[in-house]
Design a protein that fits this description.
single chain, 150 residues, mainly alpha, Hypothetical Protein Yqey, Chain: A, domain1, Arc Repressor Mutant, subunit A, globular
Length: 150
């Protein structure tokens, strides 16, 4: 089933669930709006891979907001955003673990012959497409930096 169709079906289910599905419904509506805006911007219908990019972007925005609200001691907002992230994660592919990322980075470093921190861009250019939507870019960058520094 296409991701777009799955979102529509889940939205219908959330509407029928009334009160229990309120958060899910608002998150799905927000994601569908973000997808629609991206389609208008690109003047083309998005593929599943492009929809995954939109979903990953939405998750990243919420994680960044969680950090800020945590600093401001707004635990109510933090909980709300964490719930939204959990709903969005259901639509993303299986996330890579730190060990998976580390192993992939080691392979790519060996393939590219990267020597040190100056070769970060070279490694990131290869690893980013492989981890897109499956891992947080900050985490990938941090692991690659760590491996190149050692």
């Amino acid at each position: 089933m296409l991701l777009k169709n799955r979102l529509v079906e889940d939205m219908k289910a959330a509407m029928k669930a009334k009160e229990e599905g309120k958060v899910r419904l608002s998150v799905i509506r927000m994601v569908r709006a973000a997808i629609k805006n991206t389609e208008i911007e690109k003047k083309a219908e998005l593929t599943d891979d492009q929809i995954i990019e939109v979903l990953a972007r939405e998750v990243k925005m919420r994680r960044d907001a969680i950090e800020e609200f945590s600093k401001a001691d707004r635990l109510d907002k933090v909980r709300e955003l964490e719930e939204e992230v959990a709903i969005l994660m259901e639509y993303l592919p299986q996330q890579l673990t730190e060990d998976d990322i580390r192993d992939m980075a080691k392979e790519i470093i060996a393939e590219t012959g990267a020597q040190g921190p100056k070769d970060l861009g070279q490694v990131m250019k290869v690893i980013s497409p492989k981890t897109k939507g499956r891992a947080d870019g900050k985490l990938v960058n941090q692991i690659v930096r760590e491996l190149l520094s050692s």
